[in-house]
Amino acid sequence: MTLLEQKFNKFDADNPHVWEMFIRFADELVRRDYKRLSASLVTERIRWETAIITRGSMFKICNNHRAYYARKWNNTFQDSEAKFTTKKIGGQQIFDGM
Predict the structure, then answer these.
(1) Using an 8 Å Cβ cutoff, are 79 and 56 in contact?
(2) Which residues are within 8 A (CB) of 87 and not within 5 positions of it... i.e. 6 or more apart?
(3) Phi and psi (nearest 5°) for 60?
(4) For residues 31 and 89, what is the distance between their CA atoms, to the nearest angstrom?
(5) Residue 94 domain-assigned?
(6) How far is Cα 9 from Cα 85, in angstroms, rounded to an integer?
(7) In this structure, is residue 91 part of a structural domain?
């Protein structure tokens, strides 16, 4: 397990609400018939929602976590036709896109 993955796992465990929002916003894309999903788009939507809609402070989420949330979604919702496109991490292809 890489250091980035360890940091993601800790962040994810400490912030379950982020995963809930990630699922919610990814599902909105799926309901609108998107097949290729963007972790950047979903992450920025999370930032928007936490900063503007809830009138909180800008949510701090490391850009490095995007890829891990995308992989987590792909693994959790394997039966979905929609997928996040991901790249290799440490020489291992996780998902090659569409």
Answers:
(1) no
(2) 67
(3) -95, 105
(4) 29
(5) no
(6) 20
(7) no
Query: Contact at 8 Å (CB) between 98 and 85?
Result: yes
Q: What is the number of domains present in the chain?
A: 1
**Structural domain boundaries enclosing 76:** 3-84
Structure pTM?
A: 0.83
Within-domain flag for 96: no
Tens digits of residue pLDDT in 45-73: 998 888 776 665 556 788 999 999 999 99
Residue type, 34: Y
DSSP state letters, 20-47: HHHHHHHHHHHHTT-SEE-HHHHHHHHH
Give the chain's length: 98
Could you tell me if residue 90 is inside a domain? Answer: no
For 91, half-sphere exposure in the C-beta direction (CA atoms, 13 angstrom radius) is: 1
8 A C-beta contact, residue 72 and residue 84: no
